[in-house]
Design brief:
The complex is a heterodimer of chains A (218) and B (264). Chain A has 218 residues and is an all-alpha fold. Chain A has one domain: MetI-like (MetI-like fold, Orthogonal Bundle), CATH 1.10.3720. Chain A has ten helices and no strands. The N and C termini of chain B lie far apart (47 Å). In chain B, a hairpin with a 2-residue loop joins strand 9 and strand 10.
C-alpha cells in the first residue's frame, strides 16, 4: 500500500489530469460529434460532404498520430501557444467526436422517418426537428454504444502520457524515475489498472441509470 | 374560456368571409421517382372551406399528391401555391408555410418521447411562440374536443390507435392551420376505431375547415365531401360531387373501382 500512500500527492494529480482530459475531451467530443452527426443527415449537400470528410479523415488517423499533430505539429503553425494538456484535450476530443457522430447517426437511423416528417409538418426548421424530436429519441437507443465510446475515450487518455501530460499512465515513470519514491513498476501499473476498472464501472452504472431513465415506449 | 370562444368566432368569420376563394392551387404538377412518373398533369384547386376527398386504387398517386402540398415530397415541375404563396424550396420560409398546413398521417407519427399534451403544445410553443400556460390551456380544449382530454399526461404508446390519431388531429389543429391534409388517416386503424376518428373529421368539416382527405372511407366521402377527386395511374381521372360520383361515375376506371368496392 506504500505505493499509494507514499505517493498520494502524485496519485491525486494524476487522477485529476486523467479526469480533466476525459471531461473536457468528452465535452468537445459530444458537442462536435452532435454537430457532425447532424451534418451527416442534413438536407444540405455541402454540410453532408463536410461531415463525411471530417469523419473519414479523422477517424482513419491513429489516435497517437492525431496527438503528434497537435502536440508537435500545432506549435509550428505560429498560433497562440497552448499547453500540452490543452492540446491533448483538443486531440482526443476531435478524434472521439468522429465516433460520437457515427454512433449518433446509427441512432438517428433507428428513429422512424415519420417522426421527422411530423415535426417538419408542424413547421419546425431542421435544427429543431433534430434537437427536439430526432436526437432525443436517437440518444435513447444509443446509450450502450455511446457509453462504449466514452469508455474508450477514458482509456485513450493514457495516450497522453506519451506527451508529457502527467495523467495516470504516466505515474509509473514519475514514481520509478525518482529514487526516493516507494513502489515498483508492477505495483504502480496494477493500481493504475484498478483505478481504470473502477472508473469504467462507474460509467457502466451511469449507463444503466440512463437506460432505465430514458426507456422509450413504442 | 371566453377568450377561446372569441378567437374561434374571429377565425370563423375570417374563413366564412373569404369562403370560396381558392386556397390551395396545384397546377401542372409532375412528379417522377427516377423513370417512374408518380404524378402526371395534376391540376387541382381547393377553395376555402371546401372538403375535397381524394380516392383511387393504391398506387394511384393520391398519397403522393397529398404529401406534395406541404412539400414532404418535392415535385419535378409545375407549381403549388397556398393562400396565394408559392411553396418555398427549403429553409425557414418553407417551415413557416408548413406551420399553416395541418397534416395527419396514416401512421399517426405522434412524437414517441413526448406526452400527449406535449405533442399538442410543441408547435404552438416553438413555432408560434405561445407561452407554455396558454399553449397548454388551448391544447386541453382541443384534446377535449377530440375526446381524449383524459389522456393528456400519457405517452402515445399507451393509447389506442384511434386515440392516437385523434391526438394527431388535435396536434395539427393547435397550429390554427389554413388547411388540413389527411393522408389515409384511418387506414392503419382497427375497424372499431375508424368511426371515432371519422366523427372528429366530420365535425371539423362542418366547422368550415378546409380539408384535403385521401381515404378509402366512401362513407366519409358521401357524408362530408363537397367534391370527390378520383385518381388513377398518377392522373386525376374524374372530379365531381360525391352524389354524382357514386351514382353516376363517368370514366371506366371509376366505374371499375366502384364496382370492386361494392362486391367486397
Amino acid at each position: 500500500m506504500d505505493v499509494i500512500f507514499g505517493n498520494l500527492d502524485l496519485w491525486g494529480r494524476a487522477l485529476g489530469n486523467t479526469l480533466l482530459v476525459f471531461a473536457f475531451g468528452g465535452v468537445i467530443a459530444l458537442v462536435l460529434g452532435l454537430v457532425v452527426g447532424a451534418m451527416r443527415v442534413s438536407p444540405v449537400p455541402i454540410a453532408r460532404a463536410v461531415g463525411t470528410v471530417y469523419v473519414n479523415i479523422i477517424r482513419n488517423t491513429p489516435l497517437t498520430l492525431v496527438f503528434f499533430f497537435f502536440v508537435f505539429g500545432y506549435p509550428v503553425l505560429g498560433l497562440p501557444r497552448l499547453s500540452n494538456t490543452v492540446l491533448g484535450i483538443l486531440a482526443i476530443g476531435i478524434y472521439t467526436a468522429t465516433y460520437v457522430a457515427e454512433t449518433l447517426r446509427a441512432g438517428i437511423s433507428t428513429v422512424p422517418v415519420g417522426q421527422a416528417e411530423a415535426a417538419r409538418a408542424i413547421g419546425l426548421p431542421f435544427g429543431q426537428v433534430m434537437s427536439l424530436i430526432v436526437l432525443p429519441q436517437a440518444f435513447r437507443t444509443v446509450v450502450p454504444p455511446m457509453m462504449s465510446v466514452f469508455i474508450a475515450l477514458l482509456k485513450n487518455t493514457t495516450v497522453a502520457a506519451g506527451f508529457s501530460i502527467g495523467e495516470l499512465a504516466a505515474l509509473r515513470a514519475t514514481i520509478n524515475d525518482s529514487h526516493d519514491r516507494p513502489g515498483n513498476p508492477m505495483e504502480v501499473l496494477l493500481w493504475v489498472a484498478v483505478v481504470f476498472v473502477v472508473l469504467v464501472l462507474l460509467m457502466s452504472w451511469v449507463q444503466r441509470y440512463l437506460e432505465n431513465r430514458w426507456r422509450i415506449a413504442r | 374560456m371566453a377568450m377561446d370562444a372569441g378567437k374561434a368566432d374571429e377565425q370563423h368569420s375570417r374563413t366564412s368571409e373569404r369562403r370560396g376563394e381558392p386556397l390551395v392551387v396545384v397546377s401542372q404538377v409532375q412528379k417522377h421517382y427516377g423513370e417512374f412518373q408518380a404524378l402526371t398533369d395534376i391540376d387541382l384547386t381547393v377553395n376555402r372551406g371546401e372538403v375535397v376527398v381524394v380516392i383511387g386504387p393504391s398506387g394511384s398517386g393520391k398519397s403522393t399528391l397529398c404529401r406534395t402540398i406541404n412539400r414532404l415530397e418535392t415535385i419535378t415541375s409545375g407549381s403549388i401555391a397556398i393562400d396565394g404563396r408559392e411553396l418555398p424550396k427549403e429553409g425557414r420560409a418553407l417551415a413557416d408555410l408548413r406551420a399553416d398546413v395541418g397534416m395527419v398521417f396514416q401512421s399517426f407519427n405522434l412524437f414517441a418521447h413526448l406526452t400527449v399534451l406535449e405533442n399538442v403544445t410543441l408547435g404552438p410553443i416553438k413555432v408560434r411562440h405561445l407561452k407554455k400556460a396558454d399553449a397548454e390551456r388551448e391544447a386541453k380544449v382541443l384534446l377535449d374536443r377530440v375526446g381524449v382530454g383524459q389522456q393528456a399526461g400519457k405517452l402515445p404508446a399507451q393509447l389506442s390507435g384511434g386515440q392516437q390519431q385523434r391526438v394527431a388531429i388535435a396536434r395539427a389543429l393547435a397550429m390554427n392551420p389554413k388547411v388540413m391534409l389527411f393522408d389515409e388517416p384511418t387506414s392503419a386503424l382497427d375497424p372499431e376505431m375508424i368511426n371515432e376518428v371519422l366523427d372528429v373529421m366530420v365535425a371539423l368539416a362542418q366547422d368550415g375547415m378546409t380539408m384535403i382527405v385521401v381515404t378509402h372511407e366512401m362513407g366519409f366521402a358521401r357524408k362530408a365531401a363537397d367534391r370527390v377527386v378520383f385518381m388513377a395511374d398518377g392522373r386525376i381521372v374524374e372530379e365531381s360531387t360525391p352524389d354524382e360520383f357514386f351514382t353516376n361515375p363517368k370514366s371506366d376506371r371509376a366505374k371499375d373501382f366502384l364496382s370492386k368496392l361494392i362486391t367486397h
